[in-house]
């Protein structure tokens, strides 16, 4: 796989979810990551300017992320890096997207409880989409067939471009269950209890 990246950072926005024009479930959120370190000579934490990513996920990974991840939590995201230029007439910019293959909580800052989702299999990316269970997300048979044809990484027929244009975003991959966060364990900071 080319251009893969693993990023550890803080969820900067609540995950936004919906269905693409093809009926493929998606979720998108912003992730902030910086390279902080402790300077022993100065005896203080030094942080660099944060890098911001748009994290996008599809299908069962999208469902699991929407049920497990909240703004302010520290997560680890592994996926394919995509850099896109955009403009809306008077403004233009660059969007750095991480098309997620896997998303999970960073357990160095909090706790999480794993719950396997119905229909999840232990195989590779996208395999859990082959079953009939879509977890109540409302995906269509055509979307599931599309997952089989394109390895489960992106919607077919330009659905991603329509989501990106709408500002909603989407991404790739499928997780065999990102799990559900333990209530009250947001992982949003604080010292470890030991």
Automatic annotation (TrEMBL):
Q: Entry's Pfam families?
A: SSB
State any single GO MF term. Answer: DNA binding
Superkingdom as given in the UniProt entry: Bacteria
Arranged from A to Z, the UniProt key words for this protein are: DNA-binding
Report the Gene3D superfamilies cross-referenced here.
Nucleic acid-binding proteins
Q: Where is this region: Disordered?
A: 108-194
Compositionally biased residues, Gly residues: 168-178
- Name residues in a coiled coil: none
Q: Output this protein's name.
A: Single-stranded DNA-binding protein
Q: Which organism is it from?
A: Saxibacter everestensis
């Amino acid at each position: 796989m080319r251009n893969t990246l693993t990023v550890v950072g803080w969820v900067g926005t609540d995950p936004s979810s919906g269905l693409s024009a093809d009926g493929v479930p998606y979720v998108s959120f912003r992730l902030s990551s910086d390279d902080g370190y402790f300077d022993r000579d100065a005896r203080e934490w030094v942080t660099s300017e944060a890098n911001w990513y748009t994290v996008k996920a599809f299908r069962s990974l999208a469902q699991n992320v929407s049920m497990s991840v909240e703004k302010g939590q520290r997560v680890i995201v592994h996926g394919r890096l995509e850099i896109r230029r955009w403009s809306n007439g008077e403004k233009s910019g660059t969007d750095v997207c991480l098309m997620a293959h896997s998303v999970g909580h960073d357990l160095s800052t909090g706790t999480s409880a794993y719950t396997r989702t119905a229909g999840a299999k232990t195989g590779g990316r996208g395999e859990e989409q082959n079953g009939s269970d879509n977890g109540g997300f409302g995906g269509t048979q055509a979307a599931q067939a599309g997952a089989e044809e394109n390895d489960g990484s992106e919607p077919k027929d330009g659905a991603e471009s329509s989501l990106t244009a709408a500002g909603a975003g989407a991404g790739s991959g499928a997780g065999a269950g990102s799990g559900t966060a333990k209530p009250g364990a947001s992982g949003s900071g604080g010292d470890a209890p030991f």
